[in-house]
Amino acid sequence: MTATGESPATDRALQTWAEKHREALSAYLLDLVETETPSEAPETFDRFFDRLADDLAAIGLETERAPGEETGGRLEAWSPDPDGEVQLVLGHADTVWPLGTVENNPPEIREDVLEGPGALDMKGGLAQLVFALRALDALSLSPSLPVHVLVSSDEEIGSPESKARIADLARKANRVFVLEPASGPEGKIKIARKAVGHFTVTIKGKAAHAGLEPEEGASATEELGTVIHRLHNLTDIDSGVTVNVGQVEAGLRSNVVAPKARAEVDVRAPTADAADAVAAEIRSLEATLPGTELTVEGGFGRPPMEQTPGNRLLWERVTDVGQRLGLELEGTHSGGASDGNDASQHAPTIDGFGAVGDGAHQEFEYVKLDALVDRVALLSACLLDEPLPADPHRELGGNDER
To answer: Which of 302, 325, 359 is the last residue of a domain?
Structure first.
């Protein structure tokens, strides 16, 4: 790559290159989907990461494989001049699908659609990345900042081993592109994400015979029922805070007053302040039934990706690039979380920048191939866009959700 370019001619060249390589892009994605990589099977990532590393090295990036302790580790690739500020591209190779899914549900291409387990979330984004970088290389175009790529193997299980490295890289990044799938078949880009928390509420009661001496017991199940109502009452749809008791476990058997009960609680909040407030409410819960005790464990594992000035400016830049390419991009707020939540604490971040389709984590999961071609051109053009200023307020001036 030898020259940076932002012009109508450059945009047309990127689009033309992506369109000409549609068939190769589809075949590449199919190959990635057929190579199974469940989060819980670390041994499956060797072949996958070796393939991806070879493809990235072939277009001039240096690569390094970091082994995991309990996961498949991660792959990093970067431009030969890694010193100073970079633009970070994040992806993950792990899927929620167990080994054998491809055999039972083989991926297939039908006209404009590639259907298969993990195609949308998020091997489509990885194919997009490889072909965007190939486009720049083939057209002798250099990104405005060195590119640093990190592909993890543990995003679907909360990024326990890759989270710290992502934060380190984001701290020296001018901007971050997260290649998670776009929202819905309309292809909306995720410009904000909620914080995600997990709490465990445990009730300790006292066992007694339910028929002979129930008055001697203290029912943990009864107390948990009261607590569940109190937890669900913390949901405020208008503010975006949701609390869901998704799993409960209580009692020993029907003729025993329950000595213990437990609830697993999912909590989502749109801002850090809202997350702190609802966490304080949950931690302040106390048992009300005499003879029972209540404890709360857990907290927020992913901070919110909020609409900071830097994030808003990056979104404006992306929509401007999209308009140059003839793409009317729409932003949305997501209740789910990704590595973008963590990266956005340190650098302007945009998420859902990957493949367009539907059915993530579902049997009908698919990618729209024509839209993936567009996303290849979009990513490559965004990598050419000039760096964001140190002070985003200096440039901000538009709507943050066009």
So the answer is: 302
